[in-house]
Design brief:
The chain has one domain. A hairpin with a 2-residue loop joins strand 3 (about 25) and strand 4. The chain has helices at about 55-65, 75-85, and strands at about 5, 10-15, 25, 30-35. The protein has two helices and four strands, in the order E-E-E-E-H-H. Helices cover about 25% and strands about 20% of the residues.
Length: about 90
């Protein structure tokens, strides 16, 4: 691709493949950039998606916090006892 793109308000020449990292939000099945892209309509691009570690960790923590939703304290105690019981680990299959 040849031409120019604007970086922080300053025109910059483009020689060869353009590579740019920017943030986007995934909404209604579409990635929406959080800043303008200086691209012609219908320009094909390659996209690599990286979920920031903080967002992934936060989502994982939220999911784990709902594991015991709807269970009584007795049921939670039983689930935890089963999870911590190491006597069944590495049993030979019969």
């Amino acid at each position: 691709m040849q031409g120019t793109m604007t970086v922080q308000g300053v025109p910059a020449p483009i020689e060869g493949p353009m590579r740019r990292t920017l943030e986007a939000v995934y909404e209604d099945g579409v990635l929406k950039p959080l800043e303008a892209l200086d691209l012609p309509e219908h320009q094909r691009v390659q996209v690599t998606v990286t979920v920031p570690a903080d967002d992934a960790a936060e989502e994982t923590l939220k999911a784990w916090m709902t594991v015991y939703d709807g269970l009584s304290q007795e049921e939670i105690t039983e689930v935890e006892a089963i999870a911590l019981d190491r006597s069944r680990f590495m049993e030979e299959a019969e």
